[in-house]
User: What shape does this take?
Amino acid sequence: MNEPVLRLAFPMVNAYLVRAGDGFILIDTGFRSNRKALDAALTGAGCGVGDLKLILITHGDADHSS
Assistant: This one.
């Protein structure tokens, strides 16, 4: 990931991956049905689950927090 902020576009929702020092912050997670796409996007950006320092959910709607 070369940019400090990467938009992860999924059907009907966006999530964002932010580089934070030696790790990442994930803003929103999308629908549960997008899980495989989210995993692939994180891997493609060089972010493993252990690299996530914070997961921030902007609000509790299912498209942002499933």
In short: The first strand starts at residue 5 and ends at 10. The chain is about 20% helix and 35% strand. Strands lie at 5-10, 13-20, 23-27, 52-56.
